[in-house]
Design a protein that fits this description.
The complex is a heterodimer of chains A (293) and B (729). Chain A has 293 residues and is of the alpha+beta class. Chain A is built from 12 helices and 14 strands. The chains are: A alpha+beta (293), B alpha+beta (729).
Chain lengths: 293, 729
């Protein structure tokens, strides 16, 4: 339960962190909360020669509205996301998702950037950022670039971040009127990770028709994904309980490789992806309707 | 030679009658509660001795194999390593992943762990079986038929039945998962050994240590071994022995000349420190149209590690009575597996027998379209205690609101929304009596009182019960008595198993305290001018029975002892204790038929256990048992991988226990008063843990209209059962 020896750095600025990362290359790991990295190190499944702790880069800890979007610094904790009045009013899906992460201690320590960069297949945020069409900003010595959430998750524990890049910011949209969102999750009973997590965002247009809908699913496959077939089955149609149930049946496309482990078989995961997609859509619809009134 | 005067005829020892009890039967908080809650109580785990080393075990990574070589050369050179002790030698066969091969001790825990990793064991693998398979798939060499039993005329019973139900039921292998792992600290002082052990058997461990150490070439006698267990954190039947790790710990301490601590790691605790055998059965059970049972047939089997693990007696409770006899035929077969040894698990065999019986009967009631409450009431003549069960069933039904809430299976499923609710019930029984216990009570001239018993408190309240009985007998407040247990230097008492402790220690304490008091009364009788028989101890005084105004305070009375304390001993008294209890439990569950998740919303336990010494700790036993029951009903399973032979969930994340949010409302009602109390004291450790599995399974069947045949009732099993039935609606 004691990690192998490692070198520890605690840079105070992003520039310093990037320099350290460049210097140590693949022998370095970034620490941004530590809920995944430290257990791996204690179990000696990971033994980085060097740990760069981003925790003192206070400039990466913010939630602010900019150019019609909400920008969230990578080191913002889950609790800060959960409690942000700005997000709660203008993009409640993120706080709704943060509420379902771990427990109070985990939420006080874990960060949105750390969670996304780790890309655990059972993490919660990936479903939400996919459903929000979020942008993810990565910085390197050469400057910054912006990735779309849909291209960010590459595979299990693998993102589109390049060596030498640090995830610095997540940008989510200010949701238009008539939009309802929800995150519904089947918890792994002991760890609280998502066996299945479904994030839904649904905007109602005229005549109760679904103008725009997005569903992100986590826990089901090696990486989180958008349930495009569900969205297609709903868009432009008049929302009803029956329609949602029928659309949710498309939550797991043929080409998705299902996870299967001690917590849940592939079969059970698939069935639950349908159930929780439907439940998330039902909640999102109810919220959209209540806002419409 | 002078004739020895005959001792006066001993009056039969009795419990004080109901109206005369001040402490017995009250709700009294456990004496060690504050020490435990504040962390001042020191468990074996907490014992740290000057210069103490830390030991770790190296255990088998093979389910079955022959050890071809043990190479400790690298480990010996590791920093801090002080001693290595081989438990098995090359050539030995290992029979489960987790079987202890050697132990080593180092200055720090980390050094010991590193050194353990550096030990190289070579194996010649042998074929293994770790899967929970029925006998026909196990191979003849792994199968042993243990029992075939016929009573009455089961063929005629089948003929007489109007309705016959056939079903299959069972429950998986689970582990004891003691929160305080097995283990101890061992320290030598010249040729004397002291062991701080987490044990249910403080008086019985010394000979085991002596024998084990002699076999390891260390000459020591039982009289040189002191065993201490001031408090301990759960055993549930798995902590009766010195175990290989106990002997290894003492041997390492001997070799290194330093104290050694060896507590099992959590993975090893789950792999090797005890499992509860599985049990499965195919059942055929029949009844008349009016619900009267006519016959029971069962073919059962179970896996329990490398040796056969107990023989069930089916059916359970219903059909156990002799008058009338329920015609029955039952056969049981044991399957030997390489999963680690079975150990007695709280009420050995009973939770399994209970599940199989109560679920089969509940399914038969459903087929008869009867309310199971009526069905069970109808068949109580087949139990050993019809009147007790009748009273308990009605009480439990009242507490859970059975008559208002119960709906037939099909109706529950028609409830709106994905969450369906259901009720289930179960009956259970257990023996009791008391183990052999010796107690010594000392009354000092300054009025202080000590009670010493070589027993142990597993967390059940034993310490408190002993104090209550002594204080009650001596007419003193509980605080006036010092209870000394948890050492084999005190008068010996049996191991704490089979719900025999309270019977043993309460009656030996009553006996010893009575004997000590009689000596004191004889001393002070002259001062009060009456014969000793006319005196009594009440409310801190020694007084004349007919004239309480003539009295001495306890302190004044004890002062008359001069400089010599009174000591008196006592033994287990058959007249104060009894055996055989009945209990009824009912469960109310909510099942999400879309996810398969079962939640226990409420459980009711109605339990008799004769004369209750401490109502609060008795109720606590029932609460704890229901929580343990919810764990094995919904979550616990030792998941084995046949390919590798390994257990896949030897930790607290994947071997899930209930958390506070999983438990629901628990209600306990203890049967007290006339007809119960006059039976004397009966143990309570096992009974309330027997029924939860069956009651919860029956409630789930009631909620979703179909039986989930096997425990634990995991979401995938619930959904599979629903699918087999053709869906939730």
């Amino acid at each position: 339960m004691i990690p192998a020896a490692f070198e520890y750095h605690a840079p105070k600025s992003l520039e310093e962190a990037l320099r350290l990362l460049n210097r140590h290359g693949s022998e370095a790991k970034l620490l941004a909360g530590g809920h995944s990295l430290l257990p791996l190190m204690k179990l000696r499944l990971a033994a980085p020669r060097c740990v760069i702790d981003l925790g003192r880069i206070h400039a990466l800890r913010y939630i602010r509205e900019e150019n019609g979007r909400i920008a969230i610094g990578a080191l913002t904790t889950h609790t800060e996301v959960l409690e942000s009045p700005l997000l709660r009013t203008k993009c409640p899906l993120l706080p709704q998702t943060a509420w379902e992460i771990g427990d109070v201690q985990v939420r006080n320590r874990g960060t949105i950037g750390g969670s996304l960069a780790h890309a655990d297949p059972a993490a919660d945020y990936p479903a939400a950022v996919l459903a929000l069409d979020a942008e993810i900003v990565a910085a390197s010595a050469d400057g910054t670039r912006t990735l779309r959430a849909a291209e960010f998750f590459v595979d299990m524990l693998t993102t589109a971040l390049l060596p030498g890049e640090i995830l610095t910011e997540v940008r989510v949209p200010v949701l238009p009127p008539g939009t309802g969102t929800a995150y519904r999750k089947l918890h792994q009973p002991a760890s609280g990770f998502a066996i299945v997590g479904a994030a839904a965002r649904l905007t109602l247009g005229s005549g109760g028709k679904v103008e725009r809908v997005a569903v992100g699913l986590t826990g089901v496959a090696p990486k989180a994904y958008r349930a495009a077939a569900v969205e297609k089955a709903l868009t432009g149609k008049k929302a009803s309980e029956k329609l949602l149930a029928e659309a949710a049946r498309h939550a797991v496309p043929q080409d998705v490789e299902l996870l299967s482990d001690l917590h849940a078989s592939a079969e059970y995961r698939k069935a639950m992806a349908v159930v929780f997609t439907r439940r998330a859509l039902e909640d999102a619809l109810a919220r959209a309707q209540s806002k419409k009134r | 030679m002078a004739e020895t005067p005959k001792p006066p005829a001993q009056a039969t020892i009795e419990w004080p009658p109901a109206g005369r009890r001040r402490l017995i039967g009250q709700r009294i908080s456990r004496l060690d509660g504050p020490a435990k809650a504040s962390g001042r109580a020191k468990y074996s785990y907490d014992v740290n001795r000057p210069g103490m080393l830390h030991a770790k075990l190296v255990f088998s990574t093979q389910a079955r194999a022959r050890i071809t070589a043990i190479d400790t050369s690298a480990a010996e050179k590791m920093p801090g390593v002080r001693a290595i002790h081989l438990i098995l030698q090359p050539g030995a066969e290992v029979r489960w992943v987790g079987q202890e091969i050697l132990a080593l001790a180092a200055d720090t825990e980390e050094q010991a762990r590193d050194a353990a990793r550096a030990v190289k064991i070579s194996y010649e693998p042998l074929p293994h079986l770790v899967a929970d398979v029925p006998p026909e798939q196990a191979g003849t060499e792994r199968v042993q038929q243990l029992r075939e039993q016929t009573e009455g005329d089961p063929d005629a019973g089948l003929q007489q039945a109007d309705v016959i139900f056939e079903g299959e039921y069972g429950c998986a292998v689970i582990t004891h998962c003691c929160l305080e792992a097995h283990g101890q600290v061992a320290e030598w002082n010249e040729d004397n050994l002291t062991v701080w052990a987490s044990t249910q058997n403080v008086s019985g461990l010394a000979p085991q240590f002596a024998q084990g150490l002699q076999a390891a070439g260390i000459p020591v006698q039982a009289s040189q071994v002191r065993v201490l267990t001031p408090v301990m954190g759960g055993g549930f039947g798995s902590k009766f022995a010195a175990d290989t790790w106990g002997v290894a710990c003492a041997a390492l301490a001997r070799k290194a000349g330093r104290p050694v601590k060896l507590m099992l790691e959590r993975d090893h605790e789950l792999l090797a420190a005890g499992s509860r055998p599985s049990m499965y059965a195919r059942v055929r059970v029949g009844a008349k149209r009016d619900g009267t049972l006519t016959v029971w047939h069962s073919e059962s089997w179970g896996t329990g590690g490398p040796s056969a693990a107990g023989t069930p007696n089916l059916p359970y409770v219903i059909g156990a009575g002799r008058n009338p006899v329920l015609p029955k035929r039952s056969r049981h077969t044991a399957v030997f597996t390489d999963i680690g040894p079975a150990r007695a698990w709280r009420a050995p065999n009973h939770p399994q027998m209970c599940l199989i019986t109560m679920c089969a009967l509940d399914d038969l009631a459903a087929k008869l379209q009867m309310d199971p409450l009526d069905f069970f009431l109808k068949n109580l003549q087949y139990t050993e205690r019809p009147e007790v069960y009748r009273e308990e069933l009605l009480k439990a039904a009242d507490l859970i609101g059975w008559r208002e809430k119960w709906r037939p299976r099909e109706e529950a499923l028609r409830a709106k929304g994905p969450v369906k609710r259901g009720l289930g019930l179960s009956l259970h029984t257990w023996g009791g009596r008391g183990h052999n216990s010796t107690c010594q009570v000392t009354i000092h001239p300054d009025g202080s009182v000590e009670v010493a018993i070589g027993s142990q408190d597993l967390g059940t309240g034993t310490r408190t019960v002993i104090g209550i009985v002594a204080a009650e007998t001596l007419g003193l407040p509980l605080e006036a008595v010092t209870v000394k247990i948890g050492s084999n230097e005190y008068p010996p008492s049996g191991a704490s198993g089979g719900s025999t402790t309270v019977g043993g220690v309460s009656s030996s304490t009553r006996d010893a305290a009575t004997n000590a008091l009689n000596q004191l009364l004889a001393k002070v009788a002259p001062a009060l001018g009456v014969p000793a028989e006319q005196l009594e101890a009440r409310e801190g005084r020694i007084q004349v029975k007919d004239d309480p105004s003539r009295n001495l305070s306890w302190k004044q009375a004890c002062a008359r002892l001069g400089t010599t304390p009174i000591t008196a001993s006592g033994q287990t008294q058959a007249s104060l204790i009894s055996s055989g209890v009945g209990g009824v439990q009912m469960a109310e569950v909510a099942v999400d038929v879309e996810t398969g998740i079962v939640r226990v919303e409420k459980m009711v336990a109605v339990q008799d256990c004769g004369l209750i010494i401490d109502l609060k700790t008795a109720e606590s036993q029932c609460y704890g048992a229901m929580i343990m029951g919810i764990c094995y009903a919904l979550y616990e399973e030792k998941i084995m991988d046949q390919l590798t032979g390994h257990c896949l969930n030897p930790d607290m994340e994947f071997y899930k226990l209930a958390g506070i949010g999983d438990i629901g409302e628990l209600v306990v009602h203890m049967m007290t008063g006339p007809r119960y109390e006059e039976r004397g004291v009966i143990g309570l450790g096992e009974p309330p843990v027997i029924s939860p599995g069956a009651a919860i399974s029956n409630a789930v069947a009631n909620a979703i209209g179909v039986r989930v045949p096997y425990l634990p009732l995991t979401p995938d099993r619930v959904l599979a059962a629903l699918e087999a039935k053709g869906g939730a609606v």
